[in-house]
């Protein structure tokens, strides 16, 4: 497949198709049938009925523990699991689990010469659809036509900014654990603001 530089029309199609994936590929529990990886870090996908519980226990807590053990975060910088659960429970909506790419940044999609979008290198699981959008915004974004097209299918429900920050926290923790302390300030800023 020969990739090309995406146009606004290509981003629009990608937005519509990602929304279709999130709408149509669903199940009753958050998680996945197997564990997998994000980068070379293990990613647990044990099933949960509650989204905040899944996100704290399968995403935030393992990465925070990894950072603490490696000396990248101090004990006093890491919130308790109960504090994480309480805050996420306040901000996260009652949502249906959607199939997520799980690591959707600009290096993990391609647009073919005929304009067909492809998603590559996933860290797949079923979660809140906004997680994929939060990752797209972390390192520059996908262009206004992508977000406008996506939002034709998912109306805003409030507290998006707060959830984006908390969803990006997971990816920033992954980067802290993989690439080191240049990501620590971003991690601790979000932890201090919300927890």
Automatic annotation (TrEMBL):
InterPro entries: Fructo-/Ketosamine-3-kinase (IPR016477), Kinase-like_dom_sf (IPR011009). Pfam families: Fructosamin_kin. It comes from the Bacteria. Belongs to the fructosamine kinase family. This is Fructosamine-3-kinase. It comes from Zobellia amurskyensis.
């Amino acid at each position: 497949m020969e990739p090309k530089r995406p146009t606004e029309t290509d981003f629009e199609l990608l937005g519509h198709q990602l929304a279709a994936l999130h709408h149509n590929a669903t199940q009753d529990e958050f998680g996945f049938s197997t564990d997998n990886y994000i980068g070379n870090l293990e990613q647990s996908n044990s099933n949960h009925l509650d989204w905040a519980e899944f996100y704290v226990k399968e995403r935030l807590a393992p990465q925070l523990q990894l950072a603490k053990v490696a000396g990248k975060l101090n004990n006093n910088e890491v919130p308790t699991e109960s504090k994480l659960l309480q805050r996420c429970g306040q901000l996260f909506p009652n949502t249906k689990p959607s199939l997520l790419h799980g690591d959707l940044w600009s290096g993990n999609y391609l647009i073919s010469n005929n304009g067909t979008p492809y998603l590559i290198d996933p860290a797949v699981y079923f979660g809140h659809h906004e997680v994929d959008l939060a990752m797209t915004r972390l390192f520059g974004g996908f262009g206004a036509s992508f977000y406008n097209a996506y939002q034709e299918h998912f109306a805003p429900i409030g507290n998006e900014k707060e959830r984006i920050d908390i969803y990006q926290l997971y990816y920033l923790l992954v980067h802290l654990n993989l690439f080191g302390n240049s990501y620590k300030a971003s991690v601790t800023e979000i932890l201090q603001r919300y927890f």
